[in-house]
Automatic annotation (TrEMBL):
Gene3D superfamilies (alphabetical): MFS general substrate transporter like domains
The protein, known as: Major facilitator superfamily (MFS) profile domain-containing protein
Membrane-spanning residues: 44-65, 77-96, 102-126, 147-168, 174-193, 221-247, 259-280, 287-305, 311-330, 351-371, 377-395
GO cellular component term of the entry, any: plasma membrane
Highest taxon in the source lineage: Bacteria
Places the protein is found: Cell membrane
The organism of origin for this protein: Micromonospora noduli
Organism taxonomic ancestry: Bacteria, Bacillati, Actinomycetota, Actinomycetes, Micromonosporales
């Protein structure tokens, strides 16, 4: 899925992203299964999700500042190296059978904290590697390649590897982080140096405010960010109890949980490859409206499903829509935001968009403990329908609009 037309540096970045995504696809379902072996209390399992969502809110804007100050290539490499060490330590703890709720919470918090800086740097790096008119294709191929690595390799293997030895998925994830760090270091330094390093720097706070003001003044990006925050309330709630919903409601066997979650990644591949064509055929806003309607139907179908196959299909369709939005958002923001502000504006949009995610996860955990996991899916579908209706009223075809959600 790479292309020589996009150049050597893009191929290296693509390879690093695919390597890292393969490891993520091993770790994410394995971490959920590990949490389910420690406790069956949905409140505690949801707490692991909440802790992983706090760092972008606490440190996201700060990460954006340093992504605009530092060499983005080196920043990404160092972060991946540290993440490799963290996951390797977790693998050792799991192998020694010393896992506790505290260990899971600390690991989730550290990995998410490091991820805030990595995300800001990677978002701002891509425009330095490919021409502006190639950004939609580059973003689509990044997401498609990562989805293939996760969907066809990582996710299906996660449950099987966890059944063989719970430490295996985490050990392999550490290797993928280390490989990604080496690949990023191989990027050409002149292309990866932060565009804003030559300008005069203000204080950290003044630079944070500058990024926030730019986002607030851009009507389209600001409106979409608010809609994203509202939709993430529902999405985060589903993700917080997904492992319990799959095991208890859809009757997915533990060894098949990785294969079940791979449905979302396969759907993501279709979305990544079709996003540009859909927007070109319908126009950006009509395409987004159509995708919103399809996603609402898919999430409703997921809430009504009681079988792994029907639930997996609904999840795949919903994931495809999410990836369509993510591809359009990334390309649009990278072309609209000045290069010296890319780290900060991107971080600001992610932070505002994720403000509701911990609340959604916490509410889902409490509701699941009181009423079971099935009603959580229904509530998420209803919430998303309301957000979709609001989006249809506020997103007008007179201006280019994109949307991004947490994945």
């Amino acid at each position: 899925m790479t292309s020589s037309a996009l150049g050597r540096d893009f191929r290296l970045l693509w390879s690093a992203a695919v390597s890292s995504r393969f490891g993520d696809a091993l770790r994410t379902p394995a971490l959920a299964l590990l949490a389910a072996t420690v406790t069956r209390d949905p409140r505690i399992i949801a707490a692991v999700t909440v802790v992983g969502q706090l760092p972008p809110l606490l440190f996201g804007l700060l990460g954006g500042v340093y992504a605009d100050r530092w060499d983005r290539r080196r920043t990404m490499a160092v972060v991946d190296g540290v993440r490799a060490a963290v996951v390797a330590a977790l693998a050792v703890v799991v192998a020694l059978n010393r896992v506790s709720v505290l260990v899971l919470l600390v690991a989730a918090f550290l990995l998410a904290t490091l991820g805030t800086l990595f995300d800001s740097a990677s978002f701002a790096l891509l425009p330095a590697l490919v021409p502006p008119d190639a950004l939609p294709r580059a973003n689509g191929r990044l997401q498609a390649g990562s989805a293939v690595a996760g969907g066809f390799l990582g996710a299906p293997a996660a449950g099987v590897l966890f059944a063989v030895a719970p430490a295996l998925p985490f050990a392999l994830d550490a290797v993928t982080f280390a490989a990604a760090a080496l690949l990023v270091l191989a990027l050409s330094p002149p292309l990866a140096i932060t565009p804003g390093t030559a300008r005069r720097r203000g204080s950290v706070w003044s630079e944070i405010v500058e990024g926030l003001r730019w986002l607030r003044a851009h009507r389209t990006l600001w409106r979409v960010t608010l809609l994203t925050a509202a939709s993430n309330l529902a999405i985060s709630g589903i993700m917080a109890v997904l492992v319990l919903y799959a095991l208890d409601v859809l009757r997915v066997p533990p060894a098949g949980y990785g294969l079940f979650t791979a449905a979302a990644i396969v759907g993501g591949v279709a979305g990544a490859l079709g996003a540009g064509r859909l927007a070109a055929r319908l126009g950006t806003v009509p395409a987004l409206r159509a995708v919103l309607a399809v996603e609402t139907v898919a999430l409703t179908g997921f809430a009504l499903a009681r079988h792994p196959v029907s639930g997996g299909i609904a999840l795949a369709v919903f994931a495809a829509g999410t990836v369509v939005w993510n591809s359009l958002w990334a390309s649009y923001g990278q072309r609209q935001v000045p290069s010296e502000l890319l780290g900060r504006v991107g971080a600001a949009q992610r932070m505002v968009g994720l403000l509701t995610a911990p609340l959604g996860a916490a509410l889902a955990g409490l509701a699941a403990a009181a009423y079971g996991t099935a009603p959580v899916a229904g509530a998420a579908a209803a919430t998303f329908a309301l957000v979709t209706g609001a989006a249809w009223r506020t997103l007008r075809p007179t201006a280019p609009v994109v949307m991004s959600r947490a994945g």
